[in-house]
Structures are given as structure tokens and as C-alpha cells.
Amino acid sequence: MAETLAPVKPGRLIIDGKAVDAASGATFTTVNPATEEPITTVAEAGPEDVDRAVKAANAALSGAWAKMKPIDRSRVLWKLGDLVLEHADELARLETLDNGKPIFESRHVDIDMVARCFHYFSGWATKLSGDTTPVNPALFTYTLREPVGVVGAIIPWNFPMIMVGWKAAPALAAGNTMVLKPAELTPLTAIRIAELALEAGVPPGVFNVLPGKGRIAGEALVKHPGVAKLSFTGSTEIGQHLMRTAADTLKKLTLELGGKSPNIVFADADLDAALKGATLGIFYGKGEVCGAGSRLFVEKSIYDDFIVKLAERAKKLVPADPLDPKTRLGSLVSKAQMDKVLGYVESGVKEGAQLVAGGQRQPVNGKGAFVQATVLAGVNNRMRVAQEEIFGPVLSVIPFDGVDDAVTQANDVPYGLAAGVWTRDVRKAHTVARRLAAGTVWVNMYNFYDPGMPFGGVKGSGFGRDLGEACLQEYTQVKSVWMNLE
After folding, report:
1. Catalytic residue flag (residue 290)
2. How far is CA 312 from each of CA 263, 267, 346, 347, rounded to the nearest angstrom?
3. For the chain, what are the domain ranges?
4. Which end of the chain is more exposed for a tag (fewer CB within 10 A), N or C?
């Protein structure tokens, strides 16, 4: 049975260590997509609020945060990770109410990733160092690795809580300050984590959160001259717009954008494991996952049998109340997203794909943006459902004939975020992994992430990396120092 809901307090902006209303007094309502009922009201940031937050973040660059020893900064971030775990039930409930994802995912997957981000990157606070370079015996030459300054982060609605960890943990570990704009549809967990950050000892002004509209608050953040770097996760189209806009102020950029990731099953794979991996690859997170394995390539010799078993597994995934711990397929984030997903299913069928599972809205208690787990067979790689990011529980299954055909079709999309390879042949696995145009390749697994492993894309999936040591390059800059010893 789903839990009885307690009221959710109104959300406010977090600026300079305080929860405040928008300067304009504007608010918006965040809605539970599973019930279509309001959750609470949230302050709506505008350009004046962005300016206040950026100024506070710039002031904090020369305040207590800058003067804090790296070991003390490390302790603060570790404490924030602990507080996320202490408030796990509260945060998971907010995430599920806002996003529609199953409470199982919010509580037992997402929470752990957020906490591990702060714990992992807390260790890097004491390990960012420069080098000495023997240019000339008469000189002492060395480099300093310094924070870039104020980081603007704009995060999406599919993993609101995880994205706070992905962006804020490394940026703060490197000594930066941040102004973060969560997606308008899902602002609640970002606000709450910012409150916990203050409790952990993050000084005022260091971590500011501004819920609001992308075209207003987001645009103001991108244009603000006081922001040194922008980290964005979202659609390719918005990423292109941000890149053009950020050029005026020469901001450093990290763009993790769309994906149409191939999941390739060879005939020599462990087919039971591949079936589970294909299901997880597209239906976890309702398919609202940047790296989702939305194109499943299956070798022709096993294609027909694989499709039958895949359809059977999909039909067992029934949309249900996201707050029920047994639910594994929740509501899409909004009715608009549901309509978009169903439109793609219709497009695929019109272009000749066969609908072998799902394809319909399936309300729960007569409400909600619920879509069945959907499998389209007989898909051609040139169809819209194979070329465009659907961002929902829709799997396009495409046959292939051999390694070269698999790699050619897999790479024949505008994106290059992630990929999967299923085979018992180790040599084939490594060969195909090298040939795939993707920032991440999973072999005999799918949809695994860790704070220690970098994640990001190539081609239309963007550039730069989140996570891992690699992402710290995005949040620091190198200064060369020359000292004459004569």
C-alpha cells in the first residue's frame, strides 16, 4: 500500500544562505504527474534573483569558503553526503512526488548515488595539486590548479536529485561556488539538498538554488557576466542555444546532451542476461534516461526468438502507483511528455514498425501520465523512432548481420552518449567498444554509473565530462607561476 502523504512545504529560493521569496513575488505550482494533483507552490526566480545569487556566489569566492583549508572543505562535503543518507526517506518521497519515478528507484538507487557523489568528491578537495616544471635552473616555475569561479548549473527533470550530486559535489570540492537552476517540473529535492548543505557547514553564498523557468531564470544565468562556467544536462537543441548564448561572455562549458544509445546483442551472448540488460536499459527510469538503450540491435540469427521473449518481459512491467514499493514502472514526468512519447509510437507504426508490446497510455486510478512498456520490432535505423530521442519507455529493435553492420548502424545517428555490447567473445567486446562512437560503453551490463567513472558524450551528445577525476578538469583552471631566482 502507498504511504499516507503529509503536506509538502512551499519551496523557496536559496540565495546567500537564506530561503527567500522571488523578488517579483512570483510562484508556480509543482504537480504530481502520477495523480495530476498539486504538490506545493514554489518561488519562481527571475533575472533579479539570478543577479542576487550570482553576486552572492562571487562574494563567497573570497570569503570563508576560499579561506577554508581543503581538509575542512572535504569534511563539509562528507557531512553533506551523510545528511543526504539521514534524510533519505524524505528526499526519496519528494523525488517520486515531483518526477513520478518509482519510490524503489528514488530510495534505493538515486539516494545512494547522491550521497556517494558528495563522499567521493570530498576526497578530491585535498588532492587537487599543481606541478613544478624544470624550465631553467635560474627560475622556479610551477603551476597552481585553481577554481574557475562561479559555476552555473542547469539540470534536467529526469534525475533531479542525482544531478545535484553530479554537478555540485565536484564543483564545490574544487573550491568553486554555484548557482543551480533545477528544472521547473522537479525543483523540490534541489531546494532541500541546498538546505542540508547549509546544515553541513557550506557557507552562505556558496551553493544557491533558483527554481524557475528555463527561458527566464536559465537564460539570465547563461547570460550573466559573473558566471565563469556553465554545466548543463538536457536536450541537444537547448545545449546548442546555450553554447551560442554563452559565447558572448566566453563561459567555459560542459554539455551533457541527448542520446539514442545502441544496445547490441550478438548471437554468442548470454541471452538471458542480455534480455534482462535490454529491459533495464530502456525501462529503468521509465526510459527518461539520457543514456537509455533505446535502440536494441539484435543479430539476425536470434532476432525472432529474442523479440518474443523481450515482449513477454515488457508485458509484465505494469505501470502502477509510484509510491508503492513494489512498483517498477512509474509515471512519465508530465502529460506533455506522455503525449510526445505516444506520438513517437504512432510514428513508428506508420513507418512500418510492428508493435509487439505496450504502446498505450495506462492510467492508474484513472489518472496520471503512465505509458506501457513498449517494444517496436522490425525497426529500420532510418525511422524517426531510431534517429530521434523519445525519452520514454519505448524500445526500437533493429536486426543486424555481423560486427561491421552492427557498428555501422550503431554509429549512424547524430548522438554518441552511451552504448552496450553483449557477447561472450572478449576480443569482439573490446574491438566493438573501441569502434563505437560513444562516451560510455557497457559490456555485458547496462545503465551502471559510479562517481569515480566519467560520463559524457561525443557528437550531438555534447562534450566535457561529469563524474570521475576527468570532470575536475572542467571545474578548475591552471595558473603558471614564474619566479626569478637570480
Report:
1. yes
2. 19, 19, 21, 23
3. 13-257+461-481, 262-450
4. C
Global pTM reads 0.97
440-to-70, 367, 430 alpha-carbon distances in Å? 31, 37, 13
| pLDDT per residue as tens digits for the range 111-164 | 999 999 999 999 999 999 999 999 999 999 999 999 999 999 999 999 999 999
Residues 6+ apart with CB under 8 A from 403: 428, 431, 432
For the stretch 312-362, pLDDT in tens is 999 999 999 999 999 999 999 999 999 999 999 999 999 999 999 999 999
Which one is the CATH code of 262-450: 3.20.20.70, 3.40.309.10, 3.40.50.720, 3.30.70.20?
3.40.309.10
Which of 273, 268, 286 lies closest to 426, judged by CA? Answer: 268
Residues with Cβ within 8 Å of residue 147, at least 6 apart in sequence: 61, 174, 175, 176, 475, 476, 477
Closest CA to 389 of 87, 71, 164, 156: 156
Check 117, 219, 290, 474 and give the catalytic one: 290
Q: One of 256, 299, 389, 474 is an active-site residue; which one?
A: 256
What would the grid cell of residue 45 be? 526566480
Q: Residue 5 has what pLDDT?
A: 64
CA 135, chain centre distance (Å): 42
Residues 6+ apart with CB under 8 A from 445: 277, 420
The CATH H-level superfamily of 13-257+461-481 is: Aldehyde Dehydrogenase; Chain A, domain 1 (3.40.605.10)
Q: How far is CA 384 from CA 15, 275, 285, 351, 477, in A?
A: 43, 24, 22, 8, 41
Q: Are 142 and 133 in contact (CB under 8 A)?
A: yes
pLDDT on residue 3: 47
